[in-house]
Amino acid sequence: MAHLVTLRGVAVGLLALLGCLAGPGVARADAVSEAAVKAGFVFNFIKFTQWPNAKEGDRSPLQVCAVDANPLDGQLAALNGRPVGARAIEVQVQVPATDLKTCQVLVFSGADTNRIDTVIRGLGNAPVLTIADVPGFVQVNGMIGMRLEDNRVRFDVNLGAAQRAGLQLNSQMVQLAGRVLR
């Protein structure tokens, strides 16, 4: 029975993500601020990712980090305290490079473009989900790159980078990606 509840939750969440991608106006940058829509995408990406060191019943905060002081125009902060399973998101900004491996998620915004390559190389294969709204992000081994296309937020996935870090991205979410690098 718990398996059915879990599958139903995944299906509902994927439908919500699909609604963000294809719904009439839901993901349109002029209907809602682009940054708020991207923050919603970040939340859904987190919900549909499994970490290799995840333990059932773990209630420790899920660390969502940013190097920038104001990621996604401050909209990332709206995720603070939101539940993902038994865990609550804890958003941290201006995280020093030396502490990034303690994060479960690392979000880059446009202000971070000149640091991305260095930070990603520094993470190595640490199980940190990397997400950005920077063009070409997945080509430099970022895991999920968001972009604006036809006034809608779309995303690309570097599945190889996620797998090397031991992360499992939900296959249905990957199918919704515009481009998938393997």
Ordered list of secondary-structure elements with their pairings:
Layout: H1 2-22, H2 34-47, E1 49-50, E2 62-66, E3 83-84, E4 87-92, E5 105-108, H3 116-123, E6 129-132, E7 144-149, E8 152-158, H4 159-164, E9 168-169, H5 171-176, E10 180-181
Parallel strand pairs: 2-4, 2-5, 5-6, 6-7, 8-10
Antiparallel strand pairs: 1-9, 3-4, 7-8
Helix pairs in contact: 1-2
Report on this model:
Strand 5, helix 3 and strand 6 form a beta-alpha-beta unit. The relative contact order is 0.16. An eight-stranded mixed β-sheet has the order 3-4-2-5-6-7-8-10. It is α/β, with parallel strands linked by helices. The protein contains five helices and ten strands, in the order ααβββββαβββαβαβ. The longest helix is centred in the first third of the chain and has 21 residues. It starts with a helix and ends with a strand. The chain has one domain: Rossmann fold. The protein is globular, with a radius of gyration of 15 Å.
